[in-house]
Design brief:
By secondary structure, this protein is mainly α. It is built from eleven helices and four strands; from the N terminus they run H-E-E-E-H-H-H-H-H-H-E-H-H-H-H. The protein is 57% helix and 6% strand. Strand 2 and strand 3 form a beta hairpin. Helix 2 packs antiparallel against helix 3, helix 3 packs antiparallel against helix 5 and helix 8 runs antiparallel to helix 9. The radius of gyration is 22 Å and the shape is globular.
Length: 306
Amino acid sequence: MLSLSLQLAAAAVHAPLNWADLGLKTYLFHIDTRWGDFQLRWYSLAYLAGIIFAYWHVSKTLKAPGAPMAQRHVDDLFFYCTLGVILGGRLGYATFYTGGETGLPSLWTQPSELIKLWNGGMSFHGGLIGVLIATAWVTWRNKLSFLRACDYISVPVPVGMMFGRLANFINGELWGREAGPSVPWAMIFPTDPNQLPRHPSQLYEALLEGALLAAVMLYLFWKTRARWRPGLLVGTFALGMALARFTVEFFRQPDAQLTDFAANTGFSMGQWLTIPLMLVGLFFIIRALRLPAMGSAEAQPVPAAE
């Protein structure tokens, strides 16, 4: 009898949490109009908050010695980088996560579906490529250092990633793999058709890709001379983001259309896409540490404001 009581008590301790019991809503508010129901969703606010923080932080860094650009360049950068995030993220999703053997028709062959951003489907790696293209365009046009601009832009990005992953959790989406009884924080999500206790991998990503990497990047910029070594900050960001994403993918449930791909290759699509990012990050870190650091007097002059 005592043994049975202990077993029941142990089961109660490890009973999975239920997302529905948290009382979370996917939107801040909604308004009924004659054209339909308008919702201000947390995921949209996460994107907005990330962009606003990045703009504020990069503008603040211009007041520190050695800034490679002026405020007018930051204004241009964030206009084009916002477009790069949205367009690159959507086109990246169409390239990497639809078509082929994924089981989903390629979005490239359905232009009308490709522009329906509200139907979901964004790729971090596609958004990253979009930002790099936007940064290359602005720096080339203004004769700025592309690498140093990337250093400054990369510092606040993890904060935006943290906001986005928290929004994923609030939406009850992108949940993790099935968790065993040894995981006391395992959670059941209402969007899971099997209603299994799963890893809340969105929170793992918010911690690793977001809070932890943000702390490292902000410390390096404000408390060290990392910004005087071109490529060190962006290399640290690339390597840190890749390692965090690669690790979390072991706990994150692969997209439904890519479950077989992950089983057949041993890694998820997200993990395969982070391997080149790791190599790029290592290259820039090693390069930055091997070259002599810039001095405050050697800082690249910023073109005069028009």
